[in-house]
Task: structure prediction
Amino acid sequence: GDIANNVRLSRCFFYVSDILRQVIENGGVTPPPRAPRAEKQTFALTEEARAALRVTDTPLTVSEIASYLNDTVDENTMKRITAASINSWLVDRGFLEVVERPDGKTRKLPTSDGRELGIITEERMGQYGPYTNVLFSPAAQTFVFDHVGAIVELYEQEKAAKKEQRAAAKAQRAAAPVPAPPAGQPPVTDFLN
Result:
């Protein structure tokens, strides 16, 4: 019940303690502020990079495709494309579907359109037992390469929508009334806001 045990005050004490530690480690000087990182460009392939892409005869996983695509761009100036963004676009276009497994978790598997495209499954044995691996044939690899722009566009739209939802939820929480303290306890001043 002590005021020093207030969560916000505890966080403030930890923050001040960390700043003092940094000052002591730097010989009594506050550390210089970090330079802001340069904003990276959205993932995109130039015509030359697209023409240089090569499919493999060996089917690839979506993670291997994303890794291969990321190897074609400068990671210091450009954002990475993710396997999740590729899968999300394929689900949105009806080439993959989300299927619930017996353990309650979900899995993305090819639809009939996806199988026609060349997205295949293969049963494999892992350290936790058998599992279904989703693989992309050369035709499916080419399809993904040809639609990188649309994949990135959908990802950016979904990211913007999530950002708006978080901002709306934050504004709603900020507008909510603050509950009164229990009877007999003085109100705590919010030092950290």
Summary: Residues 148-175 form the longest helix (28 residues). Helices lie at 7-25, 47-52, 62-70, 83-92, 112-117, 138-146, 148-175. The radius of gyration is 25 Å.
